[in-house]
Amino acid sequence: MPYGPSVPHMFIVVFLIMLPIYLKTKDPVLAWQSGLVWCLVIGVIVLLGAFVGPTVRKYTPRAAMLGTLAGISIAFISMRPAFLGWEDPWLFMLSLTIVLVSWMAGIRLPFGLPGGLAAVVLGTVLAWLAKLVHVDELMQPVEVVSALGQFGLRLPYPSSDFVKALHDIGPLLVTAVPLGIYNFTEGMNNVESAAAAGDDYSLRQILLADGTGAIVGAVLGSPFPPAVYIGHPGWKPALRLSRWGWPSSALPGSSITAWHCSAVVLCSPG
Fold it and tell me: Are strands 3-5 and 226-228 parallel, antiparallel or unpaired?
């Protein structure tokens, strides 16, 4: 199943955990260590969920689980980018048109290019061209060069840095516990979504891998817990029908492994 760093959790740990601690203590290392503890707690909760998840799933109606996924998808995945797109509506509409033609109308693009990839590439090229002819100031070359200057391969190593923030774990639990439960239930709902599409996965194996990924990531220095991604029924046909399916799945997987240092969940339907 698709799996990787959770974007909502990324914003939460940065702005609700690490930033307040940094503003209070002026110690960036302590803020980072607190983020590691937060991620570790979420991983432990997801691991515990692996043992109660199958029972909870058994007595929860499918409509309730899939309805939750639909609400999350509309509110967080669709609506926010749609609103932000109107900051540059001409560029937004051109990219959106490609996505609608490819995904909604089912029209195959030249060379079998995935609609999402084509939309991103076209949008990026047009944004830079608009900058060159002084039509739009969306792209900032100086900032891009500065960001590329930070690019590099920096291999992680196991550390016990999170232990130094355990003494003040109480405030972290206020958000870590509910979001850990959310991670557990989202994983359960995604497994049910895959089952509705005809793919039966072991919920316990999925949650064990998910929780282990968060714990391993925390030990290796990442405060960003992973999650099983929404949209398995859509990912599968998109990758199967495109000749770009293998690189489309391999590149994000390798990036996740290198950045978060946790293996991509590759459980086979059983």
Answer: antiparallel
* Closest to 207 measured CA to CA, from 184, 190, 224: 184
Q: What 3-state DSSP class applies to 196?
A: helix
Distances (CA, A) of 228 to 56, 58, 68, 92, 203: 18, 19, 15, 28, 11
| CA–CA dist 109, 242 (Å, integer) | 10
Tokens encoding 246: 């293998």
Split the chain (270 residues) into runs of 10 and give each run's mean pLDDT: 83 91 93 94 95 94 91 82 87 91 85 86 92 88 88 86 87 91 92 91 95 94 91 70 52 44 39
Inter-residue contact 22 to 31 (CB < 8 Å): yes
Helix%, strand%, coil% for the chain, nearest 5: 75, 0, 25
Residues 6+ away with beta carbon under 8 Å from 156? 220, 221, 222, 261
> How far from 88 is each of 9, 30, 93, 101, 270, CA to CA, in Å?
27, 39, 9, 20, 46
Question: To which residue do tokens 């260590």 refer?
Answer: 33
Q: How far apart are CA 35 and CA 41, in angstroms?
A: 10
Q: What is the pTM of this model?
A: 0.77
Amino acid present at 73: S
What span, in angstroms and rounded, lies between the C-alpha atoms of 158 and 161? 9
Alpha-carbon distance 103 to 227, whole Å?
Answer: 24
